[in-house]
Amino acid sequence: MTQKARKRGGPQRLQKVLARAGLGSRRSVESLIEGGRVTVNGQIAQLGEKVDVLRDAIKVDGRRLTLPSEHVYLLLNKPDRVMTTRDDPEERRTVYDLLPKSVHKGLFPVGRLDYHTEGLILLTTDGDFSDRLTHPRHKTAKVYLVKVRGVPRQPSLDRLRRGVVLDGRRTAPCAIEERRVSGERLARKNSWWQVTLSEGRTRQIRRMFERIGHPVQRLKRTAIGSLRDGRLATGTHRELTEAEVDRLMAGEPLRLSARDAAAKESAARARKITKKRAVRKSGRKKSARRGESSERRRSAGTAVGPDGAKVRSRKKTGAKGRTGKATSQTSKKSRGPRSEKPRGAKGGPGGRSGGRPGSKAGGARKGPGPGGGRRGGSPRGRKGPR
Hints:
The strands form five sheets. Strands 1, 8, 9, 10, 11, 14, 15, 16, 17 and 18 form a ten-stranded mixed sheet that branches. Strands 4-3-6-7 form a four-stranded antiparallel sheet, with no helix packed on it. It has a two-stranded antiparallel sheet with strand order 2-5. By secondary structure, it is α+β, with helices and mostly antiparallel strands. Mean pLDDT is 78; it is low at 316-334, 347-355 and 357-373. The protein is 29% helix and 21% strand. The protein is elongated, with a radius of gyration of 44 Å. It has helices at 14-20, 26-34, 127-134, 154-162, 204-211, 242-250, 258-300, 322-335, 360-363, and strands at residues 2-4, 12-13, 38-40, 43-44, 50-51, 58-60, 63-64, 70-78, 108-110, 118-124, 142-149, 165-166, 169-170, 175-179, 190-197, 216-224, 227-228, 237-239, 302-304, 310-312.
């Protein structure tokens, strides 16, 4: 669609004005300002400078800047072996070769797709629209269909979901779900996955799967934010509707189709089953280790008999073993009942120190008593009169 551009007066950042004029996204026009190619009222512009489009004379490469009266929004289904650029030094085919020349003026791609990556890409003359979809702070989700060599294991996929370090910086968490394609998954030679990213780095998905040993064989973008179009033929384009532009600018999330919802639920079940299997496997390993240690203890208590057979040796009786405990109990029974000691401590029945019954404090005496004890002697130690 083409939408009327609003002319906004008042101070605005220069890179925002240049982006609205269709010279590129806000980040791409910064190179024009830093290179000294932009002037404001005859002076070389500075990055971050504020201007008024209704009063200031802004020039780029000596030509007066004019804001477009309306913006263009196009959706292109990019085929393989096509560059996302206006001019290629190697003279390879570009996305502009797939569009009519009447819309080339001021049109630039919103983000990029690799030379061998297929799928949806937006082109526009609206810099604000491009910034809304490409700046990392907005976290616009982009969905890709990925074919990789072999079948990655769940621990490796979980590692990619959490994020891996690329160029010294960890990638943002992403969603990875399996997509079943007839004839591909059964052969076990390759597998299909749906990857949802909230950031876009150079060859990010390809480098992520290379990190876990499963190189990408085919890569296709299927959705940008809330925008999806599975009926757009490869190499063709169409204009966006006003409702689609409004939803993308509002940052509405992608509505999952019935197939995608089923795939997401199936992936969640698969991760749950894999986790349970890992727990069971770890439990079996622990049981095996306990069995091995028990076997080592049993084998340590065996000996070889005269006929060559293994004979288990009995443990030595001791105070702490079961056999030693039983022996001590038997010896206690054989000795008979033990003579009970009076309640008084160390002394006789009269009190603490024993002695004569009539004495004070139990008949305690400082000298040796008649029983030969230190303080009178106890009944057990008293020998009586000779």
